[in-house]
């Protein structure tokens, strides 16, 4: 089992989860985070820390696509080791539907992001 980040993280990018992760398995894109499913140790400490409720166990229904999504972008994006401020749009975008289609950026985070 692993945990994955789902689309509610998009355009929010809260990083509370990063602070509690004991194995540094979060990776940072321009406007969301992902978890490397190969590095995740299934401890579950990140899930309750996410203000956007975007972290799910892969045993929940329909998570196969999110495991693949997280694996793909974890291989492309830089690791994030410390919490940062959420995106300015975080409160407004939290819970908005269809963010994967309308808001997602494939770009990795930059030094100032």
Automatic annotation (TrEMBL):
<feature type="region of interest" description="Disordered">
    <location>
        <begin position="88"/>
        <end position="113"/>
    </location>
</feature>
<keyword id="KW-0479">Metal-binding</keyword>
<dbReference type="InterPro" id="IPR022569">
    <property type="entry name" value="Fd_C"/>
</dbReference>
<dbReference type="InterPro" id="IPR017900">
    <property type="entry name" value="4Fe4S_Fe_S_CS"/>
</dbReference>
<dbReference type="InterPro" id="IPR017896">
    <property type="entry name" value="4Fe4S_Fe-S-bd"/>
</dbReference>
<keyword id="KW-0813">Transport</keyword>
<dbReference type="Pfam" id="PF00037">
    <property type="entry name" value="Fer4"/>
</dbReference>
<keyword id="KW-0004">4Fe-4S</keyword>
<dbReference type="InterPro" id="IPR050294">
    <property type="entry name" value="RnfB_subfamily"/>
</dbReference>
<comment type="function">
    <text>Ferredoxins are iron-sulfur proteins that transfer electrons in a wide variety of metabolic reactions.</text>
</comment>
<keyword id="KW-0677">Repeat</keyword>
<keyword id="KW-0411">Iron-sulfur</keyword>
<feature type="compositionally biased region" description="Polar residues">
    <location>
        <begin position="102"/>
        <end position="113"/>
    </location>
</feature>
<dbReference type="GO" id="GO:0051539">
    <property type="term" value="F:4 iron, 4 sulfur cluster binding"/>
</dbReference>
<dbReference type="GO" id="GO:0009055">
    <property type="term" value="F:electron transfer activity"/>
</dbReference>
<keyword id="KW-0003">3Fe-4S</keyword>
<dbReference type="Pfam" id="PF11953">
    <property type="entry name" value="DUF3470"/>
</dbReference>
<dbReference type="GO" id="GO:0046872">
    <property type="term" value="F:metal ion binding"/>
</dbReference>
<keyword id="KW-0249">Electron transport</keyword>
<dbReference type="InterPro" id="IPR000813">
    <property type="entry name" value="7Fe_ferredoxin"/>
</dbReference>
<keyword id="KW-0408">Iron</keyword>
<dbReference type="GO" id="GO:0051538">
    <property type="term" value="F:3 iron, 4 sulfur cluster binding"/>
</dbReference>
<dbReference type="InterPro" id="IPR054829">
    <property type="entry name" value="FdxA"/>
</dbReference>
<protein>
    <recommendedName>
        <fullName>Ferredoxin</fullName>
    </recommendedName>
</protein>
